[in-house]
Amino acid sequence: MMKNTIEETATYHHGNLRHRLIEVALEAIEEAGAAELTLRGIAKRAGVSHSAPYRHFPDKEALLVAVAREGVALMLSEIKLRLERAKGDPLARFMVCGLAYIDFAIAHPAHFRVMFVSPRMGVSVPEDLKPESTPFFHLFIDEITECWKLGLLKGESPHAIALSAWSIVHGFSLLVIDGHLQGGVLDEGSRESMKRGLLYAFYSGARGENGPEVVPPAPRG
Fold first, then answer.
1. 194-211 in b/e burial notation, b at 16+ Cβ within 10 A?
2. With 75 labelled, which of 7, 23, 193, 220 sits at a CA distance of 20 to 30 A?
3. Cα gap 65→117, rounded to integer Å
4. Model pLDDT, residue 182
């Protein structure tokens, strides 16, 4: 045990082990899902003693929460980056939020699944990680609120519009990462066309009295 501890200390330092454990957890989740995850299994994959993960995560739930927090931060960063490119066009910014959400899910499927882990898995999600409490959802509502106030989008409230739009992009994201579209084969061109068509269709149904018939194209990622 002493030898393992010395080797682990030499190999992982200044938080490297914690980061490596999250990386390995993401690999395992992508292969077999979060339900099969165990700290002992993660330790084996990382090449450290079975007790090593407990120095950073008291249990599996704590590891999953860390994965979810990382995912939330990555998604928020991606959305903000794209919003900067969309400048001041409210509708373009609204579209950007939806496109960035889908693209993040496709690029980071393991993060995405853990961020929205089912309560039935027994994971107690902290309040700030519940979907409607996350900063990217608040950002989404802010962009929709601006469109709503300008009469570009119609609906009972910005929150109600956000829930509808979120349901659409989230459902599409899951269909893609779970391989349900076109027999699991969806080339990049088809996917790009489908996701934009999805958002345009939503806009057509939610277009307010001041909304243009044609939505300005949102910047590509």
1. bbbebbeebbeebbbeeb
2. 193
3. 10
4. 66
